[in-house]
Amino acid sequence: MTNAEGAQPLDRAAVTDLVVRELAQILETEPASIEEDVPFVDLGADSLALIELVEAIEEDLSRAVGSFHIDDDDLEDLVSVRDAVDYVVAKLQLG
Amino acid sequence: MTLPIALDAMGGDHAPGDIIEGARRAVDEYGLDVTLVGVPERMGDPRGLEVVSCSEVIEMADEPGASVRQKKDSSLVRAAELVRDGRASAMVSAGNTGATMASALLRIGRLPGVVRPCIATLMPNPGRHPAVLLDSGANSECTPEMLVQFAHLGTAFVRTRFGVVDPSVGLLSIGEESSKGTPLVKETHELLRAAPGLNFFGNVEGRDLVPSPVDLVVTDGFTGNVALKTLEGAFRFVLQNLLEALDEDEVTREAGRILMPYLVPRAERLRPESIGGSVLLGLKGICIISHGSSNATAIMNALRVADEMARAGVVEATRFAIRPDQEG
């Protein structure tokens, strides 16, 4: 699976890059400072920041794969970057 | 072409009746162009105003972030989208404050570098321009860095809105000394003192809010909201006592007849309804937040404030307040 431009394959690494980049932008910090296993709340993300992140992920991935939605019932299980990446990888069956 | 102001017709304790009445009066008395955003079957008579229809309402008790995601066709979200899409010059809501903030943040978006928008409330300041209290309720929990951002946004706002070249910044605390206050206040004090581009006056106390020795007072949203509501309650208490004293016997009633023409205009200027609403600074568009208990007069004045903010170019003035390096 590739992104909309077909330039970069949409794999686990690309999804991780996407989540980290969006989170860094929301928190006004450097992507390098974001560790995958640190809970969002410990990175300084409040509930509103997490909603921003979810909407940004949905928008980015919808551009790449047509339509992508994160169920609200699943949000409480997404507590770190790794959780979010696992969720996307499973939902898109990226292997 | 002048764009209309998008008004959330469903938000507030007295919605939609007082909201629509306030909009009608703003059109008639100030000549403003107002678009109502609401659920037609719950709105009643729109009084000849244009309506953008939606099907949902974010209630006062709804959780802010989740409600914006779940109620995408709500009046609040649709009003924010009108601003985002360039179909409205500003949005106004007396609804759920947290959801208004979330709608504006998620739909209109933040200016470069802004971590969180803050609510800037104009405080009466007889004899000179109003002082600005920020944050007066958007962010209950803040970091010192966020308070410094509020100071930069407020400085750019006061410069544009009131023509003050180098606005003075006060930090709300429990004493003038830098050693006083919470860890947040003490750390913020040091950052403000060292921050380039800010005219830091030092700490100010609650009694310095009205009248204020500074152009803007910075605090976290929890403290700011408590301070604001305390002032509103104290004002009502003093006014009530004054009115009772002027109706105590024939002598005070005669005094009241003489004094009232002088007192009423002053009291009018100090009433929250006359101020109307507060602006969310740090967004790519204008969002005015009104008191949940807003009546028609408050809504009319909130719409006037929205128009003033749009005309003053508040977004343009604050666009590079946090990231001056990005200014072309």
How far apart the termini of chain A lie comes to: 11 Å
Approximate helicity band of chain A: 40-55%
- Proper CATH architecture of chain A: Orthogonal Bundle
Please report the first level of CATH classification, the CATH class of chain A. Mainly Alpha
Summarize the structure.
Chain A is an all-alpha fold and 95 residues long.
Overall description:
The complex is a heterodimer of chains A (95) and B (328). Chain A is mostly helical and 95 residues long. Chain A is built from three helices and no strands. In chain A, helix 1 (12-27) crosses helix 2 and helix 1 (12-27) crosses helix 3. With 328 residues, chain B is α/β, with parallel strands linked by helices. Chain B has two domains: 5-114 and 282-318, 3-Layer(aba) Sandwich (Isopropylmalate Dehydrogenase); 118-235 and 266-271, Isopropylmalate Dehydrogenase (3-Layer(aba) Sandwich), CATH 3.40.718. Chain B is built from twelve helices and eleven strands. In chain B, strand 5 (118-123) and strand 6 form a beta hairpin. In chain B, helix 1 packs across helix 11 and helix 3 packs across helix 5 (97-108). Classes of the chains: A mainly alpha (95), B alpha/beta (328).
Based on the model shown, name its key terms.
A: 95 residues; mainly alpha; 3 helices; globular; B: 328 residues; alpha/beta; Isopropylmalate Dehydrogenase; 2 domains; eleven-stranded mixed beta sheet; 11 strands
